[in-house]
Amino acid sequence: MTPKNTICLWYDHDAEEAANFYATIFPDSEVTAVHRAPGDYPSGKEGDVLTVEFTVYGIPCIGLNGGDTFKHSEAFSFQIATDDQEETDRLWNAIVGNGGAESACGWCKDKWGLNWQITPRVLTEAFTNPDKAVAKRAFAAMMEMRKIDVAKIEAAVRG
Hints:
The chain is α/β, with parallel strands linked by helices. 32% of the residues lie in helices and 28% in strands.
């Protein structure tokens, strides 16, 4: 069944490469279809890959090879909730270590410019804690980090 809502992500010309990469690093992710252009278009030729259907953690997406007109920005990101430091490290290192770039507070960017928040659940639980002192300590600790350090967040929670 085709979902009613699908995230469409614009790529210069490498949507298939990006989708295959996401499918290798995120569980419950796969490339489900590759569609070729039935004719020439402004950024490609007939037969070029035009769209790629894929999932990221089960969320349906379409990668569109639209050329270099539009770029990804921090206005859109995938937020991936991780269960522990091992999962956080694995995903962060896969994105950053394959041509990506680090940013602050658990954010990173893949080599195609798409933004990701690799967010341990312990962090979200800490900065949304009803005890404002706990939330403030966890938030302050996060503000000093690039990749989130679960042990430092847990220490901030303890005070």
